[in-house]
């Protein structure tokens, strides 16, 4: 089969058949409320993007001069706080479940990288505020960036560059990583429980 | 009968498949409800708390409220002793603020990508742009053509005098009489330009009409004391764990706690390479965070501290009964 | 500085309070967020998700 399209389709169908991509059942062991926090994190990300889109439509000055703009800025800020709030609780839950088991290391890794990319995404947002807070964060943050040479191509004092990173480049990266993370979860399924006991009786057959 | 601990590979094998019972689940509805719930929480928090928006400082406001500080900073730019003037890459080839870790000197290696000649950028160039003031242009010319030794004598004398200077009611700075050469009239003119708002615009101007790069005005202000004074009032200084904080009483970037902690602990806190060291340590820890599934010891913590028994208590009580999930290898069954 | 059209009910623009213990210095609002996260995590461990019932004993 030499067609790239056919190969891509077969790859997709093999790894994510429709009933895996959009299942209507879940393992019976998923009773804990801790399982809600992945969805809550996604909910926060959607709210961030929706409020951020409104702010982007009206331009970076709008929220300083219009009360309704200030409201959308507030929604954007609080949804960022909620995003990190829910994401970290989700992370804690997954750590204590050792959710990387059974070939799910990439699920853990994409989640971890998402967190690590979300931090500079938030950073560029704080720098793009065009108020005193952004002046201070930029003039302080430059030392961290410059110390490792990053300041040579990532100038936190350049509003145009930081705004571009914040509304386009880094959100694309976060959404791409979250999408990959979710597709991997669907591909591998939710990790089954750990054995209740950490050890088993040692018999001749049971030696590893 | 002795027991042995399940190996990591046995656990991984057991977790690959699940053949036990399922229950109905609506994934699309769950995501929609999650979006609705979070959006509602965000709107409620907006109504309760709004968001902070402290107006930015300008060079005009700085020069009006702290004229002595402004002039002191301007003199340090002129004589090349300010932080920006001595910073190093990416602004110039000096070295006062160049950081490195052992022999790795990325700041130096990546070079001067945003060149700033501090005396010209912050003092000489803006003064040159003031129209219809021949006397001022003669003073600027006299300074530029003087020997370096003479220039330094003038600026040093003026800096020392500024330590005893005061601000007049008209916003001008008064210094004791002394031999300052053209520096005194240059600083007077620069202060007046700044207080009129003209210096904010001048520092943004370049060969382009449209501007979005605030490097020069921000570096100039950061060399002075206004931003730091406002930051201290808002609890944003490094010594106040300011990296995590927001202005006012708003919650800030709580997720930066470990990053800011690095700046508080010795020997990092007293090192001249503190930024590079903290960034590098956070880089290593981030790598560790990503690779937890592969780190022996760390990946076993969830087994050793059994929070999982709480999470899956229903499963163990009903289905598990102490047994691993179905489809686990035969070897893990007790004899 | 503008407020939202329904002006905020609680004004957080005043000077922050801090928790200061040896070299540890954290704003009260950040501390509350962290404590809230720990509480929510602990509560989530004990609660069941909506609609989740204790699985029937299949033995």
Structure description:
- The complex is a heterotrimer of chains A (208), B (335) and C (59).
- By secondary structure, chain A is mostly helical.
- Chain A is built from 8 helices and 2 strands; from the N terminus they run H-H-E-H-H-H-H-H-H-E.
- The longest helix of chain A is centred in the middle third of the chain and has 30 residues, at 67-96.
- Chain A starts with a helix and ends in a 7-residue tail after the last strand.
- Chain B has a two-stranded antiparallel ribbon.
- The longest helix of chain B has 23 residues, at 27-49.
- The model of chain B is unreliable at 326-335 (pLDDT under 50).
- Chain C has 59 residues and is α+β, with helices and mostly antiparallel strands.
- Chain C has a domain at 17-46.
- Chain C has one helix spanning 28-46, and strands at residues 18-21, 24-27.
- The longest helix of chain C has 19 residues, at 28-46.
- Strand 1 (25-27) of chain A pairs antiparallel with strand 2 (22-24) of chain B, so a sheet runs across the interface.
Provide the fold topology:
The complex is a heterotrimer of chains A (208), B (335) and C (59).
Chain A: H1 4-15, H2 18-21, E1 25-27, H3 37-58, H4 62-65, H5 67-96, H6 105-127, H7 132-147, H8 159-188, E2 199-201
Chain B: E1 3-5, H1 8-14, E2 22-24, H2 27-49, H3 59-65, H4 67-78, H5 83-86, H6 106-109, H7 118-128, H8 134-145, H9 148-162, E3 166-167, E4 173-174, H10 183-195, H11 198-204, H12 215-223, H13 226-233, H14 257-262, H15 274-290, H16 301-304, H17 308-311, H18 313-320
Antiparallel strand pairs in B: 3-4
Chain C: E1 18-21, E2 24-27, H1 28-46
Question: What coarse outline of chain C follows from CA principal-axis ratios?
Answer: flat
The biggest beta sheet of chain C, please? 2 strands, antiparallel
Global Rg of chain C: 20 Å
Order of SSEs of chain C: EEH
User: What level of helicity do the residues of chain A show?
Assistant: 55-70%
Order of helices and strands of chain A: HHEHHHHHHE
Tell me the total number of β-strands of chain C: 2
Keywords:
heterotrimer, B: 335 residues, mainly alpha, two-stranded antiparallel ribbon, 4 strands, elongated, C: 59 residues, alpha+beta
Question: What's the quick description here?
Answer:
The complex is a heterotrimer of chains A (208), B (335) and C (59). Chain A is mostly helical and 208 residues long.
């Amino acid at each position: 089969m030499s067609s790239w399209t056919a190969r891509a389709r077969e790859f997709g169908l093999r790894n994510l058949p429709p009933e895996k991509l959009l299942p209507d059942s879940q393992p019976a062991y998923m009773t804990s409320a801790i399982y809600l926090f992945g969805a809550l994190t996604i909910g926060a990300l959607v709210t961030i993007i929706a409020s951020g889109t409104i702010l982007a439509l009206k331009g970076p000055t709008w929220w300083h001069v219009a009360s309704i703009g200030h409201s959308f800025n507030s929604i954007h800020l609080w949804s960022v706080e909620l995003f990190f709030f829910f994401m970290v609780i989700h992370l804690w839950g997954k750590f204590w479940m050792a959710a990387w088991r059974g070939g799910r290391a990439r699920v853990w890794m994409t989640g971890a990288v998402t967190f690590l990319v979300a931090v500079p995404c938030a950073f560029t947002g704080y720098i793009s505020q065009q108020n005193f807070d952004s002046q201070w964060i930029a003039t302080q943050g430059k030392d961290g960036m410059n110390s490792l040479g990053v300041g040579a191509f990532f100038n936190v004092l350049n509003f145009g560059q930081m705004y571009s990173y914040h509304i386009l480049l880094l959100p694309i990266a976060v959404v791409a990583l979250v999408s990959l993370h979710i597709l991997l979860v669907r591909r591998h399924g939710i990790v089954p429980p750990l054995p209740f006991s950490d050890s088993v009786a040692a018999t001749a057959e049971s030696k590893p | 009968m002795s027991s042995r601990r399940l190996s990591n590979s046995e656990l991984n094998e057991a977790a690959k498949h699940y053949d036990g019972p399922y229950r109905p689940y609506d994934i699309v509805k769950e995501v929609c409800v999650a979006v609705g719930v979070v959006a509602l929480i965000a709107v409620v928090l907006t109504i309760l708390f709004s968001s902070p928006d402290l107006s930015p400082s300008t060079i005009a406001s700085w020069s009006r409220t702290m004229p002595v500080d402004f002039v002191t900073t301007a003199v340090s730019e002129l004589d090349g002793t300010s932080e920006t003037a001595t910073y190093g890459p990416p602004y110039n080839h000096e070295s006062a603020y160049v950081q490195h870790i052992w022999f790795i000197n990325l700041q130096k290696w990546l070079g001067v990508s945003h060149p700033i000649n501090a005396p010209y950028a912050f003092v000489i160039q803006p003064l040159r742009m003031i129209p219809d003031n021949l006397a001022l242009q003669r003073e600027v010319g006299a300074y530029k053509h003087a020997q370096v030794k003479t220039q330094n004598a003038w600026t040093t004398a003026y800096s020392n005098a500024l330590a005893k200077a005061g601000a007049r009611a008209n916003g001008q700075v008064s210094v004791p009489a002394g031999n300052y050469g053209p520096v005194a009239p240059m600083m007077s003119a620069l202060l007046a330009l700044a207080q009129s708002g003209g210096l904010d615009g001048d520092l943004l101007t370049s060969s382009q009409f449209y501007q979005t790069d605030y490097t020069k005005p921000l570096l100039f202000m950061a060399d002075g004391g206004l931003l730091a004074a406002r930051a201290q009032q808002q609890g944003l200084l490094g010594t106040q764990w300011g990296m995590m904080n927001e202005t006012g009483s708003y919650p800030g970037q709580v997720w930066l706690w470990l990053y800011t902690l690095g700046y508080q602990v010795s020997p990092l806190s007293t090192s001249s390479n503190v930024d590079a060291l903290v960034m590098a340590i956070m880089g290593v820890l981030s790598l560790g965070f990503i690779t937890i599934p592969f780190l022996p010891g760390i990946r076993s913590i969830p087994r050793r501290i059994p929070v999982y028994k709480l999470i899956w208590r229903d499963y163990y009580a009903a289905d598990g009964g102490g047994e691993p999930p179905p489809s686990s290898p035969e070897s893990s069954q007790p004899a | 500085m503008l407020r939202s059209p329904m002006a905020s009910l609680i004004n957080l623009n005043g000077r922050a309070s801090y928790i200061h213990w040896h070299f540890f210095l954290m704003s009260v609002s950040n501390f509350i967020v962290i404590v809230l996260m720990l509480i929510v995590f602990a509560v989530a461990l004990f609660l069941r998700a909506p609609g989740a019932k204790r699985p029937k004993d299949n033995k």
